[in-house]
Amino acid sequence: MFLARLLPLLLLLPALSLADNDKNFRIPSKQFKAGTVVDPIADMAIRADHGAAVSEGMTFPLQENRIYLRHKVGPKEYQWVSGNLVVENLKKLHAFSLKKNYLKVEDVAVMRFYGSKNMKAFQDESDLYFDRNYIYSPRVPKLYFVKNGQWQVLNETTLPGAVKFSTSEKNIEISSMKRTYAKAPKMLFPKRPGVYAYVFSAPNSLPYVDVGVVEEGSALVFKPKFIKIEKDFSKTPPVTVTLDEIEKAETLEKTEQIHDRFVAELEKATEGMDSEAFESTYPQMVKASFLGVKEDNKDYAEYVVRYNLKKIEAKKMWRESKVGDVNYLNKALRNKLDSLEALPLRGTMMPTAIEPIFVEVPVDESVDSAKAVLAKKDSAAQKPATKKEMGKLKMTFGTDHSRVDFAWAGVASGLPVDTLYSWIIKKNPALKIRLFLRNNKPVWIYKDGVVSGRHHYRYDGIEFLVGEDVYTGQGEFILPEYIYNEPEVQEWLKTKDVKSSSSEAVASSSSTAAPADIKMPTLQNLATSARIIRDKDRGSIALIDSGSFRYKGHVVEMSPFAIMTTEMTQQLFEKTMKTVDSAKRIADRSTYKHPNKPVHNITWDDARAVCQVFGGDLPTEAQWEFAALADNVEGAIWVKDSVPSPGAYAVYRGNSYNLGPKFPDYGPQPVGTKKANAWGLHDMSGNVAEWTRDRYFMFSFMVEPSNPTGAMFGSNKVYKGGSWKDGEKLLNVTNRDDEDPRYWSETIGFRCVYPRELIKE
After folding, report:
1. Which residues neighbour 211 within 8 Å (Cβ) at sequence distance 6 or greater?
2. pLDDT tens-digit profile of 366-418?
3. Is residue 73 helix, strand or coil?
C-alpha cells in the first residue's frame, strides 16, 4: 500500500527536482533601473512624453489612458516606461485580460512570463506591455508563469481598441454613460470592441450624441462639430413664472409644479415656430445597419435613448434662443430644485400589501436525531430534516406609477417575523413604519419630451416603531422595473455600492435590489467582500459573497457561503457537545488545554460530525482557499507588507515550536491573537492545520469551473494552512497535505462552513 502511494511521487521526482522557488519567478524591485534611456525597440507601442523613452520608477496605481512597457535590458536589469499609445502598433500585440485570469496588475508587473514551460527562470520575456486591464505580448499568443509552485497559463483574449477625440473647441464637455469629462481627453484606452456613444456639449452650442464602433486593435475617432446658438435678449420672456414665485416655493412638489408650468408656457409660445431649420442642421440619428449591429444591441439601444433625450434638450434650447432671455428663470428653478432634492427625507406610511416569504430551516432535532447524526460517519448523502418557516416579509408601499412605488423584503432586527406580520395584518394602531431616503430626489421620467412622472428611488432605511421600541429593518428595497431601468437610477445604485463596499452592507442595513427578473448591476468581482456577524450558537461567522479566484491554475467561480472566522475553539466545542446525547459525545483530546485554543487531536470523521450537528460541514478545499486568500493572489498574505513578517499573521515554527516545551508560547495559541486577513478570518495560516471536505488524489484530472468539490477518487482527506510546527514555506494557503480520515494529531484542527441562508443576519 505504501509503495503504491509512493510510486506517483517517484515518477514526479525528476520534474520536482527541476522546479524552482516562486521567488525566482519574480523580479526583485532593485532590478528596475530608473533614469536610463531605452534603446530603440521595433514597433514600439509607446510614444514617450518628451521624445526619448526614459526608464522611470514603477508606481501604482497605473494611470488611466496610458500604456506601460517593461523592458528587459539584461539578466538583472529591467526598465519601466510609460506614455501614450501608438495605435498603429497596437494590432501587433497579443492581449491577455487580467480580469478573466483573476490577476492584478500590481502583482503581474513583477512576475516573470514565458513563451513556454520549458524555460529556465531567467529566460523570461524581454518586452511586455501593461495597462490597468491587460498584459500585452509583442511576441506570443500564450504566456506562462509560475504561481504557488505551479506552471500556469494565460490565454489570449480579444485585443482592445481606443477612442480618440479630435477638436479645436475649447471648454468642451464629453460624457459617456458612466462618466463626464470636463476637459476633453485626447484618447480613452483600453476599450473593448463594441459600440460607444458620447454626448458632446460646449458653451452657446446645442448638445448632441455621436456614436461609433471600436474595432480590435484600432481607434475610433470622434470629431465634434457644434451648432452655435445665440439668444435674442430684446424679447420679453413669454412666461408668467417669476423669480419671486420661485424663491417663495417651500416644498419640492410646489417647485416641480412651477417648473412644469414654466416648460408648458415655453412650449406653447414656441409650438407654432417653424422648426425645419433645427431639423435640417441637427445631426441625424445613426442607423444600426450603418454601424454593423442589430437594433436590439444593448449599447446601440442606450445610444438611441440618449440621442432622443439630448435632441429634445437641444430643441428646447434652440426654441428658447428664439423667444428671449429665459435662462435666468431656468437657472433659478434648477438651483431651487437642486437644493430641495439634496435634503434627506423621512416619513411614516403603512404598506398597501404584505406577503410572507417562507424558507427551509433545520428542524430542532430530538436527542435521538442528534445521536443518529454522530453515529453515522459517512453522512454525505444524508439531508438534515427541515421545515418551512416564515423567513421574511415582502411589503409593497405606494401605488403603481405613483411618486412612492416600491417594495421592501426583510426582517425587523429583534422582532419575530410572525409577530410583525400579525401586527400589520391586524392594523395594530401602535405600529408605525418609518422610511428614510438619503436624498429627497425623485427620478424624472419623460414621455414625448414631457415629464410623465416623478418617482422616489433613493431609499436608505426602514424602522418599525411600537411605542418607544424601535426595530431596525434588515433587508432590501425593490424598485419596479420602470424605475430601476432609468439611467439616473442605475448610476446612483453603482455609486451607492462603491461607497458601501458591498451591495448589501449599507449604514441602514438595507440595500436596493432589482426587480425579481432583473439582474442587479454589480461591481467587478475582484472586490468580493465579507461581513462578520455573531451567531449565538456558532460563534463569529464571516459571510462570504460570491466571486472568482485562481485555484489550481484555473479561474473558478464560487457561490456565497458562511465560514467561522476562527478555528473551532475548545470552549465552543464543549458547548456543542452538550447538545448531543452523552453516550455519543466526542471527547476533546486536545493536548494544550485552554478555552480559546483550537481543538486538535481530532479525526476528520469527528470534525465533520461536529460541524453537521448545527447544519454545517467541513469546507471544501476551494471554499477554504477562497476564504483564506481573501481577494489576494499571493498564498502568503504577509509578503505584500512593507516589512514581511509571517509571525504577525501566524503561529508557526518561528514563534512557537522553536521555543521549546518550557515556554508558554510553545504549541497552538488562543485563536484570533494574530492579524486577520482582509475578510476578517484569523489563523488561516498556522496555529493548527485544518481539515477540508475533499478527497485527496495524487493527480487532478479536472477542476470544475464553479464550486470545485475535489477528486472523485482517493480515501485520504486534504488539510490546509500549516501549523505551529511548520516553517514559513508550509504556511502558504495554496499548499495542501493529506491524511487518513482516522488520523489525529496535535497539529490538526478544523473550522466549519454553513449555507448562507442558515445564518441569520
Report:
1. 195, 196, 197, 198, 286, 291, 300, 303, 307
2. 444 444 444 444 444 455 667 788 889 999 999 999 999 999 999 999 999 99
3. strand
By C-alpha distance, which of 689, 757, 13, 651 is closest to 391?
757
E strands, 225-331, are 227-228
d(CA 320, CA 25): 66
The answer as to whether 13 is a domain residue is: no
Lookup: cell for 227: 451648432
In a domain, 123, yes or no: yes
**Distance between CA 427 and CA 350 in Å, rounded?**
9
Q: Is the pTM of this model over 0.90?
A: no
Indicate which CATH number applies to the domain containing 197: 2.60.40.1120
Residue numbers of the domain that contains 306: 161-341
Residues 34 and 75 in one domain: yes
Could you tell me if 217 and 168 lie in one domain?
A: yes
In the chain, the number of structural domains is 4
pLDDT in tens, 40-91: 899 999 987 777 889 999 999 999 999 999 999 999 999 999 999 999 999 9
Is the separation of the CB atoms in 351 and 420 below 8 Å?
no
Asked if pLDDT for residue 552 goes beyond 80, the answer is yes
Tell me, yes or no, whether 433 and 566 share the same domain.
Answer: no
Q: Which three cell numbers stand for residue 46?
A: 509607446
The residue among 18, 16, 80, 26 whose CA lies nearest residue 54 is 80
CA distances to 229, 258, 284, 324, 325 from 318, in Å: 7, 22, 16, 11, 12
Render pLDDT for 508-534 as a digit per residue (tens, 0 to 9): 345 676 665 433 333 233 334 578 999
Same domain, 663 and 644: yes
In a domain, 57, yes or no: yes
Among 694, 610, 686, residue whose Cα is nearest residue 649: 686
Q: Does pLDDT of 18 surpass 80?
A: no
Q: Does one domain contain both 181 and 252?
A: yes
Q: Which of 612, 574, 615 is nearest to 377 (CA)?
A: 612
- Final residue before a domain boundary, out of 469, 496, 521: 521
- Say if residue 452 is in the same domain as residue 597: no
**Pair type for strands 469-478 and 459-466:** antiparallel
165 shares a domain with 150: no
Side chain identity, residue 277? A
Decide the pairing of beta strands 161-165 and 219-222: parallel
Is 1 inside a domain boundary? Answer: no
| 673-692 per-residue burial string, b: 16 or more CB within 10 A, e: under 16 | ebebbebbbbbbbbbbbbbb
Q: What is the CA radius of gyration of the chain?
A: 32
* 301 and 352 co-located in one domain: no
